[in-house]
């Protein structure tokens, strides 16, 4: 990997809460435009890790660099989609998606154009004047995704975004996410407990250990897209990840 292609450099990251060591000397790189999935057991510190990247927590040791500089959310454009994410009920779909761009004080005509583009990509153009209360779950999910991609983040962090959804909707949203990622070239770090989801989405998978958490293994995922969960190569890779997880 060329050095200039590395957007995120996690360098000996350690995080303790008092006596509790959660993240233990973790190092890895993410290259620009990569789709990285992180799989780890419950409570191993996946959310803590994301909170360290967004600067909510200070590290106990090590450093996190974005484009070669210490991570700084004022300087770096990092978008974050939580488990319990939500829309702003008092704003229309269009206003929800425009929110981040307005915060960045972009010119009105640019905002209008960018928002229209991303609404088109997620199939919400017709619903731009609707309020969240008028939308189905799947449409709400699309609003949140559209809002995150609209700001053209350097890095998009996604923390189990589809954990609570039924399988069919999850599959559809995963496909849409892949399309947006491919079209916009955004760097995505996606946290999940779901091994099938990680194999379906990722270019690379980081498998974490239990606390104190370190990297158990990094797997490259070169399965061609579109992927099919019943194909032998897919099942093979899914089994490889499952094997790694069995030994936690
Ligand atoms: N602010 C905090 N103060 C003290 N301990 C914390 C704090 N935040 C997290 N922890 C502890 O750090 C550990 C990791 O928590 P974290 O929520 O990051 O795990 P996780 O992998 O995201 O969990 P899950 O799989 O349930 O989403 C837990 O033992 C938790 O109790």
**Largest sheet, if any?**
6 strands, mixed
Poorly predicted runs of 5 or more residues: none
CATH superfamily of the largest domain: P-loop containing nucleotide triphosphate hydrolases
Please state roughly what percent of the residues sit in beta strands, choosing from under 5%, 5-15%, 15-25%, 25-35%, 35-45% or over 45%: 25-35%
Helix amount, in percent?
25-40%
Category by helix and strand content = alpha/beta
Indicate the radius of gyration in whole angstroms: 18 Å
Bound molecules: adenosine-5'-triphosphate
Using the alpha-carbon principal axes, give the shape: globular
If you consult CATH, what is the topology of the largest domain? Rossmann fold
User: What is the CATH C level class of the largest domain, in words?
Assistant: Alpha Beta
User: How many β strands by DSSP?
Assistant: 10
**Number of contiguous helices:** 7
Write the H/E string, N to C.
Answer: EEEHEEEHHHEHEHEEH
The end-to-end distance, rounded to whole angstroms, is: 30 Å
Mean pLDDT: 92
How many structural domains in the coordinates?
A: 2
Organism: Roseburia inulinivorans
Keywords: ATP-binding, Nucleotide-binding, Transport
GO molecular function: ATP binding; ATP hydrolysis activity
InterPro entries: AAA+_ATPase, ABC_transporter-like_ATP-bd, ABC_transporter_ATP-bind, P-loop_NTPase
């Amino acid at each position: 990997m060329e050095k200039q292609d590395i957007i995120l450099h996690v360098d000996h990251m350690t995080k303790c809460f008092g006596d509790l060591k959660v993240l233990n000397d973790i190092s890895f790189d993410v290259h620009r435009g990569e789709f990285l999935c992180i799989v780890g057991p419950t409570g191993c510190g996946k959310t803590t890790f994301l909170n360290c990247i967004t600067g909510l927590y200070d590290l106990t040791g090590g450093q996190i660099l974005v484009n070669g500089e210490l991570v700084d959310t004022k300087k770096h454009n990092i978008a974050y989609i939580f488990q319990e994410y939500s829309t702003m009920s008092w704003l229309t779909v269009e206003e929800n998606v425009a929110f981040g761009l307005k915060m960045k004080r972009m010119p009105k005509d640019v905002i209008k154009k960018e928002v229209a583009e991303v609404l088109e990509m997620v199939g919400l153009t017709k619903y731009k004047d609707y309020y969240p209360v008028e939308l189905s779950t799947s449409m709400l999910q699309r609003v949140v995704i559209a809002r995150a991609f609209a700001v053209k983040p350097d890095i998009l962090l996604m923390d189990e975004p589809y954990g609570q959804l039924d399988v069919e909707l999850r599959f559809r949203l995963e496909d849409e996410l892949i399309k947006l990622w491919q079209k916009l070239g955004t760097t995505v770090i996606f946290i999940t407990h779901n091994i099938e989801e990680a194999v379906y989405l990722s270019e690379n998978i980081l498998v974490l250990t239990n606390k104190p958490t370190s990297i158990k293994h990094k797997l490259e995922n070169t399965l061609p897209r579109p992927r099919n969960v019943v194909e032998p190569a897919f099942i093979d890779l899914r089994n490889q990840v499952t094997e790694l997880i069995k030994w936690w």
